[in-house]
Amino acid sequence: MPRYKLTIEYDGTPFAGWQIQAELPTVQGVLAAAVKGFSGEEAHVAGAGRTDAGVHATGQVAHIHLARHWRPDQVRDAMTAHLRPHPVAVVAVERVADDFDARFSAVKRHYLYRIVNRRPDLALDRDRAWRVPQKLDASAMHVAAQRLLGKHDFTTFRAAECQAASPEKTLDQLDVTRIGDDIRIVTSARSFLHHQVRSMVGSLIRVGEGRWSADDLADALAARDRRRCGPMAPACGLYLAAVSYPEPIVEAGAPDHL
After folding, report:
1. CA max distance for the chain
2. Distance between CA atoms of 52 and 100, rounded to whole angstroms?
3. Average pLDDT, stretch 182-190?
4. Cα–Cα distance between 91 and 12 in angstroms, integer?
5. Are 238 and 198 a contacting pair, CB within 8 Å?
6. Cα separation of 82 and 206, whole Å?
7. Is the pLDDT confidence value at 248 over 70?
8. Residue 93 near residue 5 (C-beta atoms within 8 A)
9. From CA 17, how far away is CA 137, in angstroms rounded?
10. Residues taking part in catalysis
11. Gap between the Cα atoms of 206 and 133, Å rounded
């Protein structure tokens, strides 16, 4: 059974998250329906990460099995047609080896959090960024963010319902940059705890407001206590931006011409 890697973007606003739920619209659900629409198959769409309700993606990755061989561009275009009018797009399809797994083969996940730091309401970016009206010091946020890098117990920034076996994670990147009113927080790790990124962003807001220092953020991390976390940032500003895999992932000799 040929295996295909899908790169997907979506607006998470109308969905109850990635994972299929009974009687609720989900990204995984509409993708599975699109696969069935063009192939007639009940394919499982296995994603690299389970984004929450309202969270977006510019580089989510999933894999599917299909009973017959299709050219990757045929899979992409057929899914595009069957996904309309949902705000979901399959932007790339590749044939991959049978042992490729969108979730377990991933070596790093990259997230973007978007903040618009201005008093006026959002028009074009409504539901796609978090508007923070009070002035934020992005430079102070960036300096403080570096205190979270490395391997730590991230219990402070972990949702109560998180199902991860351990609260320890290794954070490889947490950068805060400003261009005009836009503040972008980019973070990377092999994996994250449930609500970890949004919890870190909410705590960095306290630094940006001048209410916390970098030491306060480090102390909150060291406390390993969810009650020491700042308010969790809303889902609307979070994007799964990309997922990294070892090279090569494309199946050797894959018959793309079929």
Report:
1. 60
2. 24
3. 98
4. 16
5. yes
6. 44
7. no
8. yes
9. 32
10. 52
11. 13
Rounded distance between C-alpha atoms, residue 101 and residue 87, angstroms: 25
Peptide bond into 248 cis (omega under 30): yes
According to DSSP, the β-strands at 108-116 and 130-131 are parallel
Q: Which two tokens stand for residue 118?
A: 């201005």
Residue 168 reports pLDDT greater than 60: yes
What does the alpha-carbon distance between residue 214 and residue 231 come to, in Å, rounded to a whole number? 17
Per-residue pLDDT at 95 exceeds 50? yes
Q: Is 174 exposed, middle or buried (0-12, 13-18, 19+ CB in 10 A)?
A: buried
What's residue 258's pLDDT?
34
> For residues 46 and 39, what is the distance between their CA atoms, to the nearest angstrom?
17
Amino acid at 89: A
| HSE-CB of 19 using CA atoms within 13 angstroms | 5
